[in-house]
Amino acid sequence: MLSGTILVSLIALGVVNVALAQTNITANVCADPSAFTSCIAQATTASKGCMDICNGNNICVLGCGCAMYQSYINCVAESCWNQVYSCEYDELIADYFVNCPAATEPVPFWPAPDNAPGGCSCNLGKVLHSVMKAEQGYNSCITNNTSTSIVQLSNKNTACGCCEVSAGLSAMYETCPDTIPSAMGADSWLKTATLYGELINWGTCGSVLDKYSCPNLGFAPPSSNSSTFYNPNNLPPNGTYTLYNTGGVNALTAPASGSVFTWSQTSVTYTVTASPWKNSAVKATAAGTSGGSVASGTAAAAGATKTSGGASLSLQLPSVVVWLSVLGVLAKMVLI
Ligand SMILES: *[C@@H]1O[C@H](CO)[C@@H](O)[C@H](O)[C@H]1NC(C)=O
Ligand SMILES: *[C@@H]1O[C@H](CO)[C@@H](O)[C@H](O)[C@H]1NC(C)=O
Ligand SMILES: *[C@@H]1O[C@H](CO)[C@@H](O)[C@H](O)[C@H]1NC(C)=O
Ligand SMILES: *[C@@H]1O[C@H](CO)[C@@H](O)[C@H](O)[C@H]1NC(C)=O
Ligand SMILES: *[C@@H]1O[C@H](CO)[C@@H](O)[C@H](O)[C@H]1NC(C)=O
Ligand 4 atom 7: the closest Cα is on which residue? Predict the structure, then answer.
């Protein structure tokens, strides 16, 4: 419920400010560049139309924004499926979770498996998972009576908040020790954390974290391979690498979920059909580069030869149904 809390905070502050979906995935790296370009253009147009109907109603606008992100995800899955493990796709999904309070897992191809072909140098999906877990830890910490008995009531917000910020930061430093923390969202995490309450000031969390044990307050280990909760005085040195994709544009030679798959958000189910490889600027790798995956290499190569004409794309655009469904979910969250 990371995003739910952010939403409530933002509404409380009266600063709802909806970001239009954006992606740094560029058509030239896609399996089917022209299909990707037209898919994104149509999604953008449809979403702007959706927002026009909202007439300034924040919840309505948020709903349109959710549908817009979902459309972008569908565009990638259809015509840019070779980029689903890239840093740029990871960033698109992270933005979706932050900007759409109704976003729920599972989301296609996310988080990426470890060492995925063409994967991001830092598994941002894994990091975001940990950050969401930190947020859940905070929620159970402030509502759990056991933690009240451990922490003086007046210190409860501070202790729970410091553990939360620590859990998120610790996950970043442990999961991707070589990556520059701000590239994993460390700076926005620190900013978000201070939004919940002026009480959480990371710089002063050292003495709080010395006094209380976060696991005793109900927090899970910050990352899958470390249970350390760092404090501001003992964080490891910052990594120095920016994010980069570990494989070439054609590292993934066939759609990861097969040529047709479905996924759902709120009550909407999308059916996505992957385009064949049509990127003539970048050749699909057939057998040769990727020894083990002859079958998938062949599939992509076969697709590449079928460029003849007018393959119709099943574009998944946000319809009224989509955002009405999102709207219902959002309305419930806000009314709680
Ligand atoms: C796109 O890249 C710019 C520059 O690196 C970055 O500021 C922005 O957050 C990125 N947007 C997304 C959606 O990844
Ligand atoms: C926890 O504390 C609240 C408020 O003091 C109280 O209403 C509730 O009954 C307690 N729950 C348990 C399980 O003790
Ligand atoms: C945890 O895993 C990451 C990524 O595989 C690795 O770089 C890091 O060193 C590991 N940390 C620990 C404490 O094992
Ligand atoms: C390390 O990264 C954090 C988070 O982005 C930043 O606040 C801090 O200033 C950085 N430390 C150094 C020494 O650059
Ligand atoms: C409350 O916290 C204690 C100690 O961390 C934990 O054992 C217990 O399961 C938690 N209870 C709930 C309802 O989360």
Answer: 187
Identify the residue whose C-alpha is closest to ligand 4 atom 5.
Answer: 182
Atom number of ligand 3 nearest to Cα 174: 11
Ligand 4 atom with least separation from CA of 169? 4
Q: Count Cα neighbours of 310 within 13 Å in the Cβ-side half-sphere.
A: 0
**Cα gap 302→202, rounded to integer Å:** 54
> Which residues, judged by CB distance below 6 Å to any ligand atom, belong to the binding site of ligand 4?
181-182, 186-187, 238
Phi first, then psi: what are they for 120, rounded to 5°? -70, 145
Nearest residue (by CA) to ligand 5, atom 11, is 144
- Of 22, 24, 180, the one to substitute when testing ligand 1's pocket (max ligand atoms within 8 A of C-beta) is 24
Residues 277-327 have pLDDT tens digits of 999 888 766 433 332 222 233 233 222 222 222 222 233 344 445 555 555
Range of 43-47, 50-54, 198-202, 288-292 with top mean pLDDT: 43-47
What phi and psi values does residue 16 have, to the nearest 5 degrees? -60, 130
Q: Token match 């560049």: residue?
A: 33
Give me 143's structure tokens.
Answer: 């509502």
Residue closest to 271 by CA, chosen among 284, 287, 257, 286? 257
Planar angle of CA 127, 128, 131, nearest 5 degrees: 90
> What are 128's two structure tokens?
């975001």
* 136, amino acid identity: Q
What six digits make up the tokens of 4?
């739910």
For 85, the token pair is 């493990």
> What is the arithmetic mean of pLDDT over 245-265?
93
> For the whole model, what pTM was predicted?
0.80
Q: What is the pLDDT of residue 140?
A: 86
